[in-house]
Amino acid sequence: MDNNISIIVFSKGRPMQLHAYLESLLRFSDAGENNIMVLCCETQGIRYDKVREKFSGVRWRTEKNFEKDLKEAVSDAGEYIMFGCDDVVFTRRFSLDKAMGYLRSKPDVFGFSMRLGENIKPFPANAVYNDGIMEWDWEKSQELHFDYPWELDCTLYRKEDVVALIGQEEKTIKNPNYLEAIVNADNKSRLISRKHMACNKSHGCAVVITVNRVQDSYQNGFDDSMLTDIYSLDKQYNDDDNSLDIGKISELESNQVHVGAEYFILRHADKGYSARRLRLKKYKNIVRRIKSFLQKCYNYVERRVYKKGGFKKRILIKNTYETLKELRKDDISFIRIGESEISIMQGKSTPAQQYDENLDRRLREILKINDEKLRVGIPYYFIYPQKNLNPYIEVHSLSIADKRRFLLRHCSKGMTYIDACITQVYHIYEKYSFEKYYKAIFGIFKDKDVTVICGEGVLDKLQNRVLDTCASVEYLYAPSTEAYARYDEILKEALKTDKSRLICLALGSTAKPLAYDLYQNGYRVWDIGHLLKDYDSYKRQTQITESEIIQFYMPD
After folding, report:
1. 138 DSSP 8-state letter
2. Which of 55-61's residues contact partners 24+ apart within 8 Å by CB, and which partners?
3. Tell me: the pLDDT tens digits for 380-435?
4. Which of 115, 253, 330, 331 is the most buried (most CB within 10 A)?
5. 179 shares a domain with 63
6. pTM (2 decimals)?
7. Last residue of a domain, which of 308, 326, 361?
8. Residue 101 DSSP symbol
9. In terms of domains, do 370 and 327 share one?
């Protein structure tokens, strides 16, 4: 294969699946090991030595800083780049040289996909054909997968286009999910000038076997009907000398890009991967559907009660302006309990914080603090139906029955809470007196000496600063994700701050116990969360779409 083609593969915690990716790529394509670079994110307890030895001609790189490593890999790549993820398996012959030749001859074609073809239905009605290749206008296409030009599974792109996309991204690219999220439904037409895509006509040449998940940034679904957690698979691969049967997988016919456990065929059968287990999955699906129907009935009634204000008398919460008035008092500290904290108290992990039993306990204690000088906030719109919410949040407000039920069960009935959403008004309301609101925000910070404790990189790309009215601003930095694992260290550093300074926290769920412990040590503390980012978005007049809101709440 032409050395102008480079394949950059991302792998985290999946040596068995990476083996299948590399084996099938070399079997079904004209790629050689010298064309491949694997960017490997080490996971404790997962062993890559065997797959490294098996494919010793591949260039291996251990991830230290994803964005830096990615940019260096792209810089070192040839004229054309195909990204790959370790959950992909190739199933049919294809030629990267042929794909490169087509891109060279067609300047309006952005990428050549190996996963698409006429077997993926429906395919574009406006497609044109040339020598066994399908080409279509992705901007005009309405068909799933064919309307989306940027993905990391197995599409060949020009290096110049990859460099341009990465160079325009303002947010830190922390992992492959963030790289793929550079392009979304709202910006794809603006970012990508080449409006066509291409693929082999008759059949896609790869499937994505979704049996486990290794990234928490985006909660992609997966089929867990078999024992396919990464530690079970590491044992199967490294200790039991098992691997995926590429030959049998390639014999299966599919009209889907993403497939489930029925494609996860091992060379040596194991009871954890048996047909009986798949039958049990079908039975569980029937039970799940029944439960889902009953849940939908409950949710329908719950939404109607919420929309009519039926929960308002159950929990007392000050609205945004009442909350701002409260914060003008000289000695008030506050902590906000939001959706992420409720999720943790429900035993779940969030994109920025793995579930921690001790953090769960501390959050439950904070939710019941009744102290006139330390106010606790919960989201006002969770309980009080609001007009003029932006469309995404309005829909969201109707779909959080479990969060609402948790608050109704666990909040203190004798307390008056403040509005936790005081820090992200621009991302909640479609119509609002934003100028009046931000004027009040500037007022409460005016002439204060402030120390901000926040995640690394959180404030790096902000162009507009709420804290410009402060007398002075100092910063202490902590991890932007999994900060609670270093809680004692963060608290120790924070306690070195002069007590005359106002401490402002933007540190996710870790900010909550940190705020309480600092308050107990005599500090005035504000849990400001997303306020600084929210104001920057307002000043830029960022269009508040569903994808923008999702990105906004993701870890920086």
Report:
1. T
2. 55/19, 55/22, 57/32, 57/33, 58/22, 58/33, 61/37
3. 999 999 999 999 899 899 989 999 999 999 999 889 999 999 999 999 999 999 99
4. 115
5. yes
6. 0.59
7. 308
8. H
9. yes
